[in-house]
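Why do we care about 3D structure at all? Because function follows from shape, and shape follows, mostly, from sequence. That is the central idea of this module. The next example makes it concrete: a single protein chain, its amino acid sequence, and then its structure expressed as tokens.
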Amino acid sequence: QVQLAESGGGSVQAGGSLRLSCAASGYAVSTRCMAWFRQAPGKEREGVATIDGYRTTRYADSVRGQFTISRDNAKNTLYLQMNSLEPEDTAMYYCAAGSIAPCQISPGSLDVHKYRYWGQGTQVTVSS
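And the structure:
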């Protein structure tokens, strides 16, 4: 059974940093496409960053240069380093994993429908 468990969320002031983690069990992260999504109240879930089995990454325009996605195969864990946080980054952040292996990033890799497995989310709140 695949399980994804996010951690690392919290409350920070604008300009601060957080690192989110997503520990996977029953699933090997090394060759799959994995991603971070976020959803703010009243808004649709949006793709933030994705990484494929070849460690190629893709970011939403809104976070490029601010967030960094990475993966530790030995720990079977996905990360999202978030710097220079702003109030508009406040959202529930979700880890997502695809079912295809090996997986390579494609134009639709930040589409929510590309991912089969989801974590429960971790809240990030940024105050001004």
